[in-house]
């Protein structure tokens, strides 16, 4: 199939890079977003999210006339749905006394409904949003059938999950393997024809539900492995062991690759996707469920490390360095760092947070610093929550001149203990049971 005009619904961390990449390869792209501010921002030639290379790609696309943003879809050869699938706020499922989070599919539903008036025979519709198994068949297809057309007979319908790493999205969209799951083999082939416009990696064709499960399996696999690393950090703390040293030694084994612990798991993939399996089949997912419980509970363990270092936290001033869910990105979705800050505040600490990749972030109840210097001035302790490159490069001696704080807590193993201790700081690290004995007088 040939695609001259496509409509991308949802202009966030996946939809906008995807739209820009198609436009850069000569396709006429209409980007659709329900947020009028996003539409206005993009049509001014600006972007609302940070991703290396995205601004330049979008600028070229706009200058070529191949991209424009709008609040409503229009007729096109193909429609891509790339909207968020967060949790339903305040709603949980229950199985045998265990509660689990439930996916909020309203944005997918709304996006599919918006396509109906413009759907024509021969079109292709692709769902990219990460979704519970059978969403394409059981949710999207029936909505699109309201057009009077049948998926797989009158138009093509497929699922193709994004599989990219924030910070490297523009490159990985092109180079990574792409999975296309069609409701029919012809729909999978149509999806393959579409993404062949720019994908250089291998394109694998399968059915829609398999493609949905592949995406969830990938992130669930990582979540379970992070959970065991986080449990190891708690065990090391209990037994007086430095987990970072123990992991480095264990990983010398040729068949062992333990991941790094931290203050938790965030982002809109690893911390979310496993729950879709639990929601779909709670009776079959005890391991996945408990791994989620471990990782969701890790911010509480990080707070325990801070409590041990500071003693009573009421009134203590803490400079929280980093709020993003992972290093060197501006994405704060489901961030464990934000959860740690809120937990500290609940115990009476006065926390000022500095996020260099999103200095204008506005989070209810969170005091944002205007700079690193603003965050650390007058602090009693420094708390490293995200392993940003610029934080790793900080000079302990220079920091010591800018703050009266002489205590720090490293939750991500971003700082070298000896350098900070030589600069006069008491050093605490998550998972380091060897540093449990020293406390600051409350």
Question: What attributes characterize this protein structure?
Answer:
eight-stranded mixed β-sheet; 16 helices; six-stranded parallel β-sheet; 39% helix; Rossmann fold; 442 residues; 17% strand
Provide a descriptive summary of the structure in words:
The protein is α/β, with parallel strands linked by helices. It has two domains: 179 residues, 3-Layer(aba) Sandwich (Rossmann fold), CATH 3.40.50; 229 residues, NAD(P)-binding Rossmann-like Domain (Rossmann fold, 3-Layer(aba) Sandwich), CATH 3.40.50.720. It has 16 helices and 16 strands. The strands form three sheets. An eight-stranded mixed beta sheet has the order 3-2-1-4-7-8-9-10, with helices on both faces. It is globular, with a radius of gyration of 24 Å. The termini are far apart. The C terminus is likely disordered.
Topology:
Elements: E1 5-9, H1 15-24, E2 28-32, H2 36-43, H3 54-64, E3 67-70, E4 78-81, E5 87-95, E6 98-103, H4 106-115, E7 124-127, H5 135-144, E8 156-159, H6 169-175, E9 178-182, H7 185-195, E10 203-207, H8 208-239, H9 243-250, H10 273-280, H11 286-310, E11 317-321, H12 336-346, E12 350-354, E13 367-368, H13 372-376, E14 381-384, H14 389-392, H15 396-402, E15 407-410, H16 417-422, E16 426-429
Parallel strand pairs: 1-2, 1-4, 2-3, 4-7, 7-8, 9-10, 11-12, 11-14, 12-13, 14-15, 15-16
Antiparallel strand pairs: 5-6, 8-9
């Amino acid at each position: 199939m040939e695609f001259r005009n496509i409509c991308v619904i949802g202009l966030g961390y996946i939809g906008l890079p995807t739209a820009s990449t198609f436009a850069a390869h000569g396709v006429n792209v209409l980007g659709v977003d329900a947020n009028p501010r996003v539409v206005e921002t993009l049509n001014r030639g600006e972007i609302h999210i940070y991703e290396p290379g995205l601004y330049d790609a979008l600028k070229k696309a706009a200058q070529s006339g191949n991209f424009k943003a709008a609040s409503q879809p229009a007729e096109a050869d193909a429609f891509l749905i790339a909207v968020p699938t967060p949790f339903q706020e305040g709603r949980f499922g229950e199985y045998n006394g265990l509660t689990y989070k439930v996916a909020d599919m309203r944005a997918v539903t709304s996006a599919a409904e918006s396509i109906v008036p413009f759907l024509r025979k021969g079109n292709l519709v692709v769902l990219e949003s990460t979704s519970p198994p059978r969403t394409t068949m059981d949710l999207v297809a029936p909505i699109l059938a309201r057009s009077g057309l049948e998926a797989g007979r009158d138009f093509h319908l497929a699922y193709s999950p994004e599989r990219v790493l924030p910070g490297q999205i523009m490159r990985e969209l092109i180079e990574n393997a792409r999975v296309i799951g069609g409701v029919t083999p012809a729909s999978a082939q149509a999806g393959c024809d579409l993404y062949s416009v720019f994908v250089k990696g291998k394109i694998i064709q399968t059915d829609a539900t398999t493609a949905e499960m592949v995406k969830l399996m990938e992130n669930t696999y990582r979540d379970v492995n992070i959970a065991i690393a986080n449990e190891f950090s708690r065990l090391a703390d209990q037994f007086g062991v430095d987990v970072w040293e123990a992991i480095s030694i264990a990983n010398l084994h040729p068949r062992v690759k333990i991941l790094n612990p931290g203050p938790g798991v965030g982002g809109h993939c690893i911390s979310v996707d496993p729950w879709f399996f639990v929601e779909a089949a709670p009776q079959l997912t005890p391991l996945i469920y408990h791994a989620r419980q471990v990782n969701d509970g890790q911010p509480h363990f990080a707070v325990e490390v801070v409590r041990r270092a500071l003693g009573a936290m009421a009134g203590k001033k803490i400079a929280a360095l980093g709020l993003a869910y992972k290093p060197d990105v501006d994405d704060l979705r489901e961030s464990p760092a934000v959860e740690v800050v809120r937990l500290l505040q609940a115990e009476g600490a006065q926390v000022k947070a500095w996020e260099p990749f999103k200095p204008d972030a506005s989070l209810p109840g969170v005091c944002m610093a205007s700079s690193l210097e603003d965050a650390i001035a007058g602090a009693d302790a420094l708390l490293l929550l995200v392993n940003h490159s610029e934080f790793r490069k900080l000079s302990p001696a220079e920091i010591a001149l800018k703050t009266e704080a002489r205590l720090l807590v490293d939750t991500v193993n971003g700082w070298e203990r000896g350098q900070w201790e030589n600069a006069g700081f008491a050093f605490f690290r998550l998972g380091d049971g060897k540093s449990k004995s020293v406390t600051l007088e409350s």
